[in-house]
Structures are given as structure tokens and as C-alpha cells.
Amino acid sequence: MVEERVRVCFIGCGHHSMESLQPAVSLIPRFEYVAACDLVEEKAREAVRRFGAKKWYTDYEEMVDEEAPDAVVIVGPPPMHEEVGVSCLRRGLNVFVEKPPSLTVEGAKRLSEAAKASGRICMVGTHWRHMPVHRALKRVSEDEGFDEVFRIEATYLAPDSRGAWGQSFEWGFMLNQAIHPMDCLQFLGGRVVEVEARGVAVEGSKLAISAILRFASGVIGSFSLGGCSPIFYERIGIQGAGGWAEAEQFKRMRYAAKRRWVEPTDPSAVQTLVFEHGSHYRGVSRPGYVEELEHFAQCIFSATQPHADAEDVYNALKTLDSIVRSINTGERIRIY
Asked: 130 in the Ramachandran plot: left (φ > 0), alpha (ψ -120 to 50) or beta?
């Protein structure tokens, strides 16, 4: 357990690190930003100037040896997440890696197993589950009046028109984009055990994927993805025996329940409660970045395991891989 503040170092000072995650750390009092590292010296120096890191390095091994931090945040290409993540876990550090943890399901499993062997915390940056609107969705679904959850759905459109990190279009889309809604569905419904999917992917032209999911809990899910979109669009819905709720565009949730909250003058009236971010939301870039790192710091501080760890993301990638295999074979795929 950490006594005072969590001493953290960043490994990787590229665009996402500098525009989303390092600004978030400065908003979290429990972090003490000790040092930043990047292979490009000027990028590491920029982290010192902009976000208050005390020192800069171009060799992460030298940095962790000299600074002895409590934790590292690793942000770079996926092979770096896997290799440096495993290395830091073996050094006894708590680790946060940006998504995806690896380019392969096997690599994600390797990181998860290294975390278990080390006894340290390893979180992956699937920030959707940490967004206030999705946390509100989770709380609503656990309310007694919502009753048993039996259906979950996700729709997500993104502009990607080519495979990320040199991967095929469909797998690159899964790694870069679909990992977020899939992890969010796991957050709400638990582990997926079976999938059946159909889809088409033509690089530079179109990507459409629809999948039926069966969860270990018995919940049935639908998962719809679209690439080559002119916009980002997100919708997550959940239905229980006593209510329905839907989050849309990362900031707005609607909730309707069978249990009325005012006496209706019109018996056919629909009574819907709305949650929406206000104008003074404290986050940076997108909702969820501050909250996921805050959760990371809190878990280190209290020596507790996070609700989003490397094993969760391994399960998400395993499910996404099964969706691709189902598309290619036309078969239903049993995962567990």
C-alpha cells in the first residue's frame, strides 16, 4: 500500500499521451508526476515543461531504476504496450497501458499472466467503462427496480477506413475501435461466452459488422459496428425486467422504468429521466480519461484490484477475435 501519493512515471510522450493522459494526471491529487520518458528527447522535455514531470529520460529502464516509481503509464504502439508492460510488471511496478495491450490475443494473454504472476495491478486504457455516463448506466442497471437484465446492445460508428498498425481492416478496427464498446458491454453484462456474426470489410470503402452475443449470465447482446463513417457515433443500451436505459454520444443517458416517478395525468405518458454532462465537466479530451487514471491511483493507494484489468481486456480481444472468425467461417463460435 502506498503511504502518501502514488509516484508515477510516463513511458511514451506521443500525441495521445500528451493530449489526453498526461493532462489528466495533473488533475488527480493522488499522483506525484515523477518523470517522463520518450525515445525522442524533445518530447520527454516537453512533458517536463507542460505537465510538471520532475525529470526526463530517453531510456525507460534507466528511469525506473533511478526513480523507483510506484507505477508507470505506458503509451505507444501496441507491441510496446506488451513488451514494456511485461518488463515493468516483472520489475514489481504497477502498470497502466493504453489500449490495445497487444496486436494479438496471445500477447494480451501474456500481459494478463505477467500481471497475475507479479501480484501487481495492470490496467488497460479502455476508458469507456469509466465515463460518467456509462458508470451511471451501470448504477441504474443494478437498481432494485430495474430488475433482472436480459438484453444489452451497442452500436458504434468510427471513421477508420484502413487497418490500424498494419493489420487487416477488420482486425485493425477491432483493436483500435471496437475494443471500447466490447469492454463496455463486459462492464455491464459480464463475460461473453458465444458469438455469431456477419459482416463485410472493404478497405477504404466500407465496414459493417453485426454480431449476436451470449453472456455467461444468460444475457443476450447485439453488437453493431460501422467503419468509414463521417462521424463518431456511440450508443449503449440495457434492458431489464423493470426498466430500460440508453447512453448516447458519451455524455447523455435516458432511463425509463415501469415504476412511475410522478402520478400521470395521461396513462400513456412516457416518463423518462435524463443524465447529461454539465458545462463544467472537469475531464480532458474525452470523458473517461481522468476517471480511469483516478481509479488506477485509488487501487494502488488502497492495494485493491481494479474492476478493469488486463484479464478483462484479454477477454474482450478474445471475443472480438471470435467475431472475426465467425464472419470468416459463417459459424457460431463458442468462446468459453
From this structure: alpha
Q: Which residues contact 146 (CB under 8 A, 6 or more apart)?
A: 140, 240, 241, 242, 243, 245, 257
The alpha carbon of residue 237 and the mean position of all alpha carbons in its chain are separated, in whole angstroms, by 17
The CA distances from residue 74 to 89, 100, 144, 209, 290, in Å, are: 12, 11, 39, 31, 16
CB 128 within 8 A of CB 180: yes
CA angle 104, 313, 251 (to 5 degrees): 125
Phi and psi torsions of 222, nearest 5° = -125, 145
Contact 238/134 with Cβ under 8 angstroms? no
Domains and CATH numbers, the chain: 6-128 (3.40.50.720), 129-288+316-334 (3.30.360.10)
Identify the pLDDT of residue 144: 85
User: pLDDT band at residue 1, thresholds of 50, 70 and 90?
Assistant: low
Strand pairing partners for 71?
A: 8, 94
Q: Return the C-alpha cell found at 166.
A: 498494419
Query: In this structure, are residues 86 and 101 in contact, taking their beta carbons and an 8 Å threshold?
Result: no
Give 120-153 pLDDT, tens digit per residue.
Answer: 999 999 999 999 999 999 999 998 889 999 999 9
Whole-number pLDDT of residue 281? 77
* CA 131/CA 253 separation, integer angstroms: 12
Q: For residue 3, what pLDDT is reported?
A: 64
For 196, the grid coordinates are 455469431
Residue 213 bridge partners (DSSP): 195, 221
CA 335 – CA 322 distance, rounded (Å) = 7
Instruction: Give the type of residue at 322.
Output: S
Q: How many beta carbons lie within 10 A of that of residue 23, not counting itself?
A: 17
Q: Which DSSP string do the residues of 27-89 spell out, in sequence order?
A: T-TTEEEEEEE-SSHHHHHHHHHHH--SEEES-HHHHHHHH--SEEEE-S-HHHHHHHHHHHH
Cα–Cα distance, 27 to 293 (Å, whole number): 10
Distance between CA 263 and CA 84 in Å, rounded? 59
